[in-house]
Amino acid sequence: MNQLEKTITSNEVAEMVGRDHNEVLKDVRRISGQLGEGNLPQSYFIESTYTNAQNREMPNYLLTKKGCELYSTRMTGEKGTQFAVAYIERFNKMENHIKEQQKPQSLEVALRAALEHEEQIRTIKSDVTLLKGTMRITSLQQQEIQAGASRVVVKALGGKEAPAYAELKSKLFSEFWREFKQYFKVPRYGDLPTAKFDEAINYLNLWRPNTSTQMEIDSYNSQMAIY
Length: 227
Description:
The protein is mainly alpha-helical.
C-alpha cells in the first residue's frame, strides 16, 4: 500500500471539522513550517491540487494518517474528538478495502487464470509451428543445398575429368533440380520451407540419376576406358 493510497484531502478535512478549506490550508502550512525540513513534512502533508466547480485548478494537501493525527492535536473539545473519530474510521475503511484487494485469488479465479495461460501457450505453439511451415530457408542454407547438389551431380558423372562431365553436365543438373522441385513441391529451391531443410540434405545424400541417364553416363565414361 503506497503513501498516496493512505491519504485524505484537506478538502475532506475541512468538511470533517466544519471549517472553510482556506483556513485548513493555512493551518497545514503553518504546521508544516513548524515541523522544519528535518522532520520530513511530506510524510505528514503532501502538496497537491484539485479542480473546483469552476473547472479551475486549486491548491490542496493530502494528509497521511500521521498528518491527521498531528492536525487533530491542534484541535480541542468536541470538534477534536469528532475529527479523530472521523479520520480513524476513514483510514480503517481504506486499509480494509486495500486488504480485500490483496487477498489471494479464489480457487475458481486461479483455475481460470491457469486455463487462460495454457490456452495462450497452445496458441503460441501453434503460431510457431505455422511460422516454421511458412519460413523459407536462409541464404546460407541455400548455398549449402546448392553446394551439395553440385557435389552429388559431379560425383554421379564420374568427376570433372570424366567424359560424361563435359557432355552431360547441363542435362544432369537440370534433371536433379527438376526432381528436387517436384519432390518438395516448390517452384525453386530457394522457396524450400525451413522445416524441410534437414530432409533436403538427406535427399541430396540419397539422390541418384535415373536408369536411362545412368546408362548414358556409363556409356560416355566407358569410351574413355577403351581409349
